[in-house]
Amino acid sequence: MFFSILSCLSLLTSVVVAQTNTPYCDSTSGICLTGYTDPDLDITVGFILPEDDTSTEYIVQMVAPISYGYTGISMGGTMANSLLFVMWPNDNEVVFSTRWTNGYVQPDLYTGPTITMLKGSGVNSTHIAATFRCQNCTVWEDGSLGSGNTTAFQLIAYVAQTTTMVTDPSDPGSDFVEHDQFDFFGADLSTAHSSSYNSYIGSGASSSSSSAAPVSTPVSSSTSTASASGATQTKYGQCGGTGWTGPTACASGSTCNAVSPPYYSQCQ
Ligand SMILES: *[C@@H]1O[C@H](CO)[C@@H](O)[C@H](O)[C@H]1NC(C)=O
Ligand SMILES: *[C@@H]1O[C@H](CO)[C@@H](O)[C@H](O)[C@H]1NC(C)=O
Ligand SMILES: *[C@@H]1O[C@H](CO)[C@@H](O)[C@H](O)[C@H]1NC(C)=O
Question: Which residues line ligand 3 (CB under 6 A)?
Answer without folding.
Answer: 149, 151-152, 190
